[in-house]
From TrEMBL:
Keyword DNA damage appears in the UniProt entry: no
Keywords (A to Z) from UniProt: DNA-binding, Transcription, Transcription regulation
Species this chain originates from: Nitratireductor aquibiodomus
SUPFAM superfamilies: GntR ligand-binding domain-like, Winged helix' DNA-binding domain
Name of this protein: DNA-binding transcriptional regulator, GntR family
Domain of life: Bacteria
Keyword Transcription (UniProt): yes
Pfam families given in the database record: FCD, GntR
Residue ranges of domain HTH gntR-type in the record: 6-73
GO molecular function: DNA binding; DNA-binding transcription factor activity
Length: 247
């Protein structure tokens, strides 16, 4: 058994969180200490601490006689998350627009450029480029909100973003919990998905923020959330081999 040291709990937590949020460890997957110890090369003590903290964050669940598992995803939860996102991010965006400086504006433009490059790659190969696009997407939205002053709201936003990212992964790329096979969507769902992933929508959001038009920017953000919800609902309603959602 590998010997533990003071850095191991944080390292184990970071590794587990990364693999849960990215979908490497799928919703409902068992989190057994022996398997995790071999996978990450750390002892049971830091893993127990990491699992406890992941449970507090809503990324893992502990069931009697079953141990820890990756927290499940559900249509009801993702709708709740998106509505919470709209409330929290709108408040942060309005405050950021009111207090952002030139450095804030420059960071938004730089992150939009990275999102543009990721969007080009996404059009070529969605399954291979999705993780990079999500990184660029999260960085862009983070840049938009960076000038906001509320530490608590930013903390809530980060937690919501982590949960939404694993819902995106389960929904769009891993039907039935199969991380090796990209989901096949029907034409109406693909049209909604293209709209939700559109660079043009993010460009309009950037332009409204840089113009200090808080009313327009907030409306565009809420519209963005509604497009995402429409994609979720379309996929969840599809019969057959759908994503690993709970009812």
């Amino acid at each position: 058994m590998p010997q533990s040291d003071p850095l191991e709990p944080e390292g184990a937590l970071a590794a587990l969180k990364r693999d849960i949020v990215s979908g490497v460890l799928a919703p409902g997957a068992p989190l057994r200490l022996m398997m995790l110890s071999k996978r990450y090369g750390v002892g049971y003590t830091p893993l127990r601490e990491a699992l406890s903290r992941l449970e507090e964050a809503g990324l893992a669940v502990l069931s009697p006689n079953r141990g820890y598992r990756v927290a499940p995803v559900s249509v009801a939860e993702l709708e709740d998350l998106e509505q919470a996102r709209a409330v929290v991010e709108t408040a942060l965006l309005e405050d950021a627009i009111a207090h952002g400086d030139l450095e804030w504006e420059s960071a938004i433009v730089a992150c939009h450029h990275q999102l543009s490059r990721a969007s080009t790659a996404l059009r070529r190969d969605r399954s291979a480029a999705f993780a990079s696009w999500m990184d660029a997407h999260d960085s862009f939205h983070g840049a938009l909100l960076a000038a906001a002053r509320s530490g608590w709201l930013k903390s809530f936003q980060r937690q919501i973003s982590e949960q939404l990212r694993r819902h995106h992964q389960a929904l769009l790329l891993a039907p039935g919990g199969d991380a090796e096979r990209e989901a096949e969507h029907d034409a109406p769902t693909l049209a909604l998905l293209e709209e939700a992933l559109s660079l043009a929508n993010h460009t309009r959001l950037m332009e409204a923020a840089l113009a200090r038009d808080a009313v327009c920017a907030a409306a565009l953000l809420r519209e963005h959330v509604q497009f995402t919800l429409a994609v979720y609902r379309s996929v969840a309603a599809r019969p057959g081999d759908g994503p690993p959602f709970q009812a």
